[in-house]
């Protein structure tokens, strides 16, 4: 029987292009080692024509950021009827928009922090929420454009006024939740282990913490009470299902245990295209559950589908 032909979609033209190239090449290497025929596609505006030319059996979506995880490439793959990894059009678009994802998660019983969505220029003159709070682009990934406003700051960050602000004009202002950074991967309909992310030399889990070697330490399983682990897993699975996700996702949380083990647990977002770089979280979490990197990637290819 001929080997299944997989087109690994990577690169693209979002802010997360370097991460996508790293993820894509790691996944392509794993698939080649597992015996698949692999075509590596650095995605550009002609991706539809290139996919028709390559004619793969499956597309492995290793794109990150706008176009790659907001439902756009998913729509192209649906139109071409090429089965693809990760979530479909609606779930991808929904999860990418932080405000709308928060509304759906809250309706499913998942705890979220209070937030407001407004134009960045309206968030710049005075505090629209009592500090501390976080300002996030409403539809970016990899912590691009995230600003933390501390209690002692007299006014919002003036970067919001910048004429070359590259992250879109609509931002979300969200209450800052003190505490520990937790994340949980969902694989199919199973919530895997919970990981604590400990940034090394960074105030929070920013781009450098995510992708530079030594930028953060991953503690899997997280050294937190079993009852909290169960709550994280339940909420991660609930968010995954409420948004109609499929394949592998990763939900991020903050856990404030300063005043007791019960603490406050807050869901931040679900990532439908989690990174697959050498320093990424999902491979570490899957490994703790007994899945090698190659096994994880092969499972994703075999799970690939179209909506209809």
UniProtKB/TrEMBL annotation:
Residues 102-302 form the ATP-grasp domain. Gene3D superfamilies: 3.40.50.20, ATP-grasp fold, A domain (3.30.1490.20), ATP-grasp fold, B domain (3.30.470.20). Its EC number is 6.3.2.4. One of its GO terms (molecular function) is ATP binding. GO terms for biological process: cell wall organization; peptidoglycan biosynthetic process; regulation of cell shape. Mg(2+) 2 binds at residues 269, 271. Its cofactor is Mg(2+); Mn(2+). Binds 2 magnesium or manganese ions per subunit. It is an enzyme of class 6 (ligase). It catalyses: 2 D-alanine + ATP = D-alanyl-D-alanine + ADP + phosphate + H(+). The active site is at residues 16, 142, 280. Keywords: ATP-binding, Cell shape, Cell wall biogenesis/degradation, Cytoplasm, Ligase, Magnesium, Manganese, Metal-binding, Nucleotide-binding, Peptidoglycan synthesis. Mg(2+) 1 binds at residues 252, 269. The keyword Ligase applies. One of its GO terms (cellular component) is cytoplasm. InterPro entries: ATP-grasp, ATP_grasp_subdomain_1, D-Ala_lig_Van_CS, D_ala_D_ala, Dala_Dala_lig_C, Dala_Dala_lig_N, PreATP-grasp_dom_sf. Pathway: Cell wall biogenesis; peptidoglycan biosynthesis. Cell wall formation. Belongs to the D-alanine--D-alanine ligase family. NCBIfam families: D_ala_D_alaTIGR (TIGR01205), PRK01372.1 (NF002378). HAMAP family: Dala_Dala_lig. This is D-alanine--D-alanine ligase. It comes from Jiella flava.
């Amino acid at each position: 029987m001929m080997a299944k032909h997989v087109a690994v979609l990577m690169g693209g033209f979002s802010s997360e292009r370097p991460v996508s190239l790293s993820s894509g090449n790691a996944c392509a290497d794993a698939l080649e080692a597992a015996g698949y025929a692999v075509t590596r596609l650095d995605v550009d505006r002609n991706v539809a024509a290139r996919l028709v030319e390559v004619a793969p059996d499956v597309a492995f979506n290793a794109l990150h950021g706008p176009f790659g995880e907001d439902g756009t490439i998913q729509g192209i793959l649906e139109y071409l009827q090429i089965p693809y990894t990760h979530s479909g059009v609606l779930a991808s678009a929904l999860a990418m928009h932080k405000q709308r994802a928060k509304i759906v998660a809250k309706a499913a019983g998942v705890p979220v922090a209070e937030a407001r969505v407004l134009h960045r220029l309206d968030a710049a003159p005075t505090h629209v929420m009592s500090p501390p709070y976080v300002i996030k682009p409403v539809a970016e990934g990899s912590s691009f454009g995230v600003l933390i406003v501390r209690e002692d700051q007299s006014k919002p960050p003036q970067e919001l006024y910048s004429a070359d602000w590259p992250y879109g004009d609509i931002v979300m202002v969200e209450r800052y939740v003190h505490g520990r950074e937790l994340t949980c991967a969902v694989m199919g309909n199973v919530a895997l282990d919970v990981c604590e992310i400990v940034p090394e030399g960074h105030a929070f889990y920013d781009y450098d913490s995510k992708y530079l070697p030594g930028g953060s330490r991953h503690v899997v399983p997280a050294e937190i009470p079993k009852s909290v682990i169960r709550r994280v897993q339940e909420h991660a699975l609930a968010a995954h299902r409420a948004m109609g996700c499929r394949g592998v996702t990763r939900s991020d949380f903050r856990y404030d245990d300063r005043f007791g083990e019960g603490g406050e647990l807050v869901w931040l977002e679900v990532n439908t295209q989690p990174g697959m770089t050498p320093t990424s979280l999902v491979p570490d979490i899957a490994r703790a559950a007994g899945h090698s990197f190659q096994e994880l990637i092969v499972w994703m290819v075999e799970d690939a589908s179209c909506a209809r």
